[in-house]
Amino acid sequence: MEEPPISTSTRSYWRWSKQDFFPEPSFQSFTTYRTALSSACPRLKDRLLSRSSDNNELKVLPQASENPMRRCLTAWDLTWLAFGSVVGSGIFVITGQEARSDAGPAIVLSYAISGFSALLSALCYTEFAVDVPVAGGSFSFLRIELGDFIAFIAAGNILLEAVVGAAGLGRSWSSYFASMIKNDSDFFRIRVNSFHEGFNMLDPIAVAVLFIANGVAMISTRNTSILNWLSSIVTTLVIVFIVVVGFVHGKASNLTPFFPMGMKGVFNAAAVVYWSYTGFDMVATMAEETKNPGRDIPIGLVGSMSMITVIYCLMALALVSMVNYTQIDVDAAYSVAFVQIGMKWAKYLVSICALKGMTTSLLVGSMGQARYMTQIARSHMIPPFFALVHPKTGTPVNATLFITLLSSIVGFFSSLDVLSSVFSISTLFIFMLMAVALLVRRYYVRQNTSREDLTRVLGCLFVIIASSAVGTALWSSKKLGWIGYTVCAVVWLLGTLAMSLLPKQRTPKVWGVPLVPWLPSLSIATNLFLIGSLEPDAFWRFFLCTGFMLLYYIFVGVHATYDVEHQNRQDFKDVEPTEEPTNNGPFVR
């Protein structure tokens, strides 16, 4: 039985005053805001050089929620939360699209490549989540190690992930449901010819599904977890059925040619099917509600991701064995595949499983996305109104409702291919930053690291990132061939080797990533490589969204966080700090 949280506030949860959204001094009047804008440059410099601390994220920021979240999750819950969040969020959606357009039968390798990269990222998340078990996930981790500004860019992309990911799942749910009723994935959608292509198929079913799933997630973390793992066990049985039938009815002739679009097609597909692995980071946001983070999070994250990678490869192989890649339906691949091999009844089983998988992905995703938003709001990068935790449910209701509203609007208009490309680049970018942050955490501690060692760390990071980026650019442009790739690989190897010879300044508190710096460095390289494999349109959408985020930061975020940070310093100036003040900068001793 879930115990009710102990409330620390006597105020009503449902309140809407200006002070609940903008309590900072800079926003009290037009005069104070104009004064804040006149100091934008020094304030921006302060934020660029500011870092948070473990103690600040663990002890200080949660006070903004007024009520605590419930510690009610175990390793069993986390394992199935990861499974429920990941399986169904992409394998039933993107596999057919990428097998047909980019990789062909080699989609199996695309899943293996993306799975390996995702596992490397999962290792980085695990170490941070065990050391700093808060609801903020990657936002908090990056704020501690790479500073306030980098964390804001990540925060913007996290919220972009939340909105786009939920919208994409809502659209996919609608496609599969339509294919069950009538063999037309657009059956329930409304075409508006005057709208731009990609935004002209309105989807009311997606909106309804998003509101229902997010409504359930708001009620109770524990009950949502129980519902998730019960339904995920059913999904596992259906997956076994899909794989077995796929292999029984598979034809070797469907696997040739195995590389119809070459290795470039394999990597292009790998960058997009990475969406199928997203969701594991949601488990990291559950750390604040986990009974024993040091034991439960490694089991839940690393164990589930290893299992999911194997499952995905088997499912992809089953699909391309049953049906020639040129005949795969891009909207409901598995359901239509069973129809094509004469098992019409099985398409309903597969569609129900896919719908169930996408529903649990929406449930778990809603939980994780709202907790990301809660920690971002606790820092005042967005209004602290969204940081409030409901006293009865122990869940962030305001944040959940906001994510639901935005994702419903996007899902109502946007097609799946538009959503998946934006989502992939945002996810890969954050995972790359997480690997960088882990290396900084291990090799740089403000009190202990000399300036000479700091310079060496920065130099090694520059070499690792630059060699990975240049290698990716050469691959995408097809210039210099294997000579260029080999040179970049050697430079990356030397940069990583040099970092491995530097003294580590910190050891993990409980659980740590093995083979540091090699695995985090490899994570940086693979994520950058997958980013470089995306189409140019994905970059334009990403840069456009990031541009809007920067405008918001300059006019709102920088002033809110500056006010709060300096107020906290004033409040605690007489208290002996456990770390140096957070305005020392991310790389200043």
UniProtKB/TrEMBL annotation:
Residues 511-560 form the Cationic amino acid transporter C-terminal domain. Coiled coil: none annotated. It is a multi-pass membrane protein. The keyword Transferase does not apply. It is found in: Membrane. Keywords: DNA-binding, Membrane, Transmembrane, Transmembrane helix. GO terms for molecular function: DNA binding. The chain crosses the membrane at residues 78-96, 108-129, 149-170, 199-220, 226-248, 255-277, 297-320, 397-416, 422-445, 457-476, 482-503, 515-534, 540-562. The keyword Amino-acid biosynthesis does not apply. PANTHER family: CATIONIC AMINO ACID TRANSPORTER 8, VACUOLAR, INNER MEMBRANE TRANSPORTER YGJI-RELATED. This is DNA-binding transcription factor cat8.
